[in-house]
Write a structure and sequence with these properties.
By secondary structure, the protein is of the alpha+beta class. The chain is 24% helix and 28% strand. It has four helices and twelve strands.
Amino acid sequence: MPKILQKVAAGDAPRPLVAQSKNPLISAEICEHIIQECEAVAAARGGWTTQRHAQYPTTDIPVTQLPGTIKWFREHLLPEAAFPFLAGVFRGWFPPSAMTQSLEDDDIRLSFRVVDAFVAKYNASSGQRHLLPHRDGSVFSFNVALNGAGEYEGGGTFFRQLESLSPSPQQCKDGPPGVVRSPQGHLMAHSSALMHGGHPIESGCRYLLIAFVTIDDKHKGWASDFYEHVRLNDLDGEDPPV
């Protein structure tokens, strides 16, 4: 079972908007291989990309430019770990028309589509240290921590919805409320409509694999309503200027 970090009550069935795997879903060996491939590709072409996302740019390398990682991403991470995690965690939000008795063949799970996937790098000594609060333009977002939290200080993902909650073991011990750190190999997923950002790191480097997930057009009406519902029910506070 995943760790439910934030949920909205709906009758007797709480529905999560942020969740983190209790155990690592990706081995340390694979995580380290992805980091090594990223650094090798960056070195060969003169650096990491920094302008792919116009409004909230990240220092990253698209998964499609990582030959070893993209094969594993498509054949193993999505069908064996990420999509089952999303289907299980967010099942309570899905429309009845997309549900079956089995998670293995739920129409909604089979309708997941990744629209962007990349490895992001935060570097305290040079480069990007943080990412301002924002909302993603997909339905769900997930990330996998590629290196251990002991390899950097600070960091983590900030969620405005979590600021008012009591600190949990997953939140930075010395950081502000609302910041969640993941151990290596753990997957964290959330509604893309939640306000979130990359909390500044103070030392070291932080690597994470990030993906934006939408669903097939036959569910686009539900997806649009879900996104707007989450956005409108986010805690009070203006969105950052675009």
